[in-house]
Amino acid sequence: MIEVEHLTKRYGPRTAVQDVSFRVGKGEIVGFLGPNGAGKSTTLRMLTGFLAPSGGAIRIDGIDALAKPIEAKKRIGYMPEACPIYPEMRVREYLRYRAELKGVASRAIKERIEIALDQASVKEAGDRIIGQLSKGTRQRVGLADALVADPPILVLDEPTAGLDPNQIRQVRDLVRGLAGKKTVLVSTHILPEVESTCDRVVIIHRGRVVREGAPDQLRQAIAGGNVLVIEARATHDQLRGALEGVEGVGAIESVEALGDGRVRARVAVEELGEGAERVFAAFARTGLVLRELRPETVGSLEEVFGRLTTEEAAQPEPPASTDESSDEEAAS
Ligand SMILES: Nc1ncnc2c1ncn2[C@@H]1O[C@H](COP(=O)(O)OP(=O)(O)OP(=O)(O)O)[C@@H](O)[C@H]1O
């Protein structure tokens, strides 16, 4: 449904998005994850037709979005980061205005507004003045706006930014509830958000895609193979001696002295289960006390992200520009 190929955006000499390619299949919920300034909003604005790319291609539901931007836009409900909502309008009045703008047939507008209010869990605020709503409720009005024309694709830019934990949960539930019904691309810099709502994650850092996969796959990929964590009452040399020549046991990747005659080591093994059995037997043979033996796991995607961005941070910064203006803003 969404195909992005070699997308690039330069702001003067600064390249904000560089050679970004990814796809979002029909009915998929994909998280677009990256730290602040990674290029998420710039990418989303390009693929929703609000910003002209410097290079690359975008296809929305098979339509070339650069050649036929109006056709492509009709298929997308876009919720920008700072949702432009008119504070003096009432919610239903605003959604009517938006539905008309989006070309919803006039006989269908009333029903579409009620459905969108319901989907965004904001029905109770339908007759209230937007300027008097809490930030969370306003955010949900933005979501109702994205849904009002019943587009097959939703592009949501940080929909939970600035919300309290309760409101965040509501928005997450809502996005999850769209699974299978809509194709969703949702940007965030918050990892638990993608873990709990997304089928797949595209991680962007400094304008480039650094990883892509299911949240679980990403965690495994970064765990870096089969590693056992061993804690024993032993010296470094005793540990090395116990593991020497044990079948299926590879390099000792690190050893840490814990004091009190204990060490903790990370050891590469060919296979986790068998490796653990063999390490256990080897320690039993030597009579050394084994205190802990477990596969190394990466706790959360938070850690994955930390590792990825640290790897990337080792690379030099792209040249900065003082020109903050966009070179080719597209008409909305
Ligand atoms: N109009 C602009 N002119 C110049 N540089 C810009 C402009 N808009 C964004 N940038 C720069 O492009 C880079 C990517 O910004 P972008 O807003 O896309 O990041 P983001 O991942 O959405 O981050 P955030 O969550 O902070 O919005 C940043 O370095 C930003 O400073």
Automatic annotation (TrEMBL):
Ranges of residues in domain ABC transporter: 2-231
Any one GO molecular function term: ATP hydrolysis activity
Entry keyword set: ATP-binding, Nucleotide-binding, Transport
Region (Disordered): 304-332
Xref: PANTHER family: ABC TRANSPORTER, ATP-BINDING PROTEIN
Family the UniProt entry places it in: Belongs to the ABC transporter superfamily.
Protein name: ABC transporter, ATP-binding protein
Lineage: Bacteria, Pseudomonadati, Myxococcota, Polyangia, Polyangiales
